[in-house]
Amino acid sequence: MSWGQLRWTVERFHQDIKQELGADKYQGRTWRGFHHHLSAVMLAHAFVAERRLEAGKDREDSASFTEVVRQIVRESAVQRLMENHGFDRPKARKVAVDMLREYSDW
């Protein structure tokens, strides 16, 4: 692997954790809190990266990082609607997608 490829990989990592996982959103005042925040961001990144690799096994192109994050958020919303409000899966999926489109940039 060349230095140019390595630099691109690091830059892409930083872009993903800032734009998708909120690495740059920490507003605390302590070094310890900053480390806790970044630890959670790194753990989330590892989880999303693993899901992304799993999704790519079934098809030629792997899903984008943003696409996988959205799938995880959508599935989490569906699960909560099913558990907390007794929706069936199709209705929960429709409501979750509608809510996410209404309250975010989806």
Q: Describe it for me?
A:
Helix 2 crosses helix 3 (65-85) and helix 3 packs across helix 4. The longest helix has 27 residues, at 31-57. It is globular and about 50 Å long. The chain starts with a helix and ends with a helix. It contains 4 helices and no strands. The protein has 106 residues and is mainly alpha-helical. The relative contact order is 0.08. The model has no long low-confidence stretch (mean pLDDT 85).
SSE arrangement:
Elements lengths: L2 H17 L11 H27 L7 H21 L3 H15 L3
Helix pairs in contact: 2-3, 3-4
Q: What kind of sheet is the major sheet?
A: none
On the 0 to 100 scale, the average pLDDT is: 85
Number of helices: 4
User: Which word captures the global form?
Assistant: globular
Structural class: mainly alpha
Total number of β-strand segments?
Answer: 0
List keywords for this structure.
mainly alpha, 75% helix, globular, 106 residues
Describe the structure concisely for a colleague.
The protein is mainly α and 106 residues long. It contains four helices and no strands.
